[in-house]
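REQUEST ID: PR-0412
SUBMITTED BY: lab tech R.K.
PRIORITY: routine
TASK: structure prediction, single protein chain
INPUT:
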Amino acid sequence: MNEILKMFDLTLIDAIMIPIGSLMFLVFWRTFGMGVVKPFADLVAEREQATLGAEDRSSAVRAEASDLRENFEKQVTNARIEHLKLKFEAVAKSKAAAAQLVAQAESTAEKTLEQAHVQAETKLKELRTQAMRESDGLAQAFADKARGSLLA
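STATUS: complete
OUTPUT:
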C-alpha cells in the first residue's frame, strides 16, 4: 500500500482523508439536492403547470367567447329575419287593405256613375218630353196664328 501511495505522492493521512472527503461530498450532495435543488425544481414545475393551466383556461375562455359571439350573431340574424317577416306581413296586409279600399271606391264610383247616368237619362227624357210638348204648343200657336192671318 505504501508503494501505491508513493506512486501518487500521497501520505497516509491523504489516504484516510480521500474516503472521508468522498463520503462528506456525497452527504453534502444529497443534502444540497434535497434542500435546494429539489424545492427549486418543484417550484419550476409548479410554475410550468400554472402557466399551462392558465393557457388551457385562456383557450377555454376564448373558445367560449367565440361560441357566445357565434350564438349572438345567430340570434341577431334570426331577429332580423323575424323583423323582415313581420315587415313583409304588415306590407302585405296594408296592400290587401289598400286593394280592398280601391275596390270599394271603384264600386262606389261605379254605382254613383250609374246613378248619375240613370238620372241624366231620366232628365233627358223629361226634357225631350217637355221640349216635344213645347214644340207641339208652339207649332199649334204658329198654326193658329197662321190660320188667323189667313182667315183675316
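NOTES: The chain has two helices and no strands.
REVIEWED BY: pending
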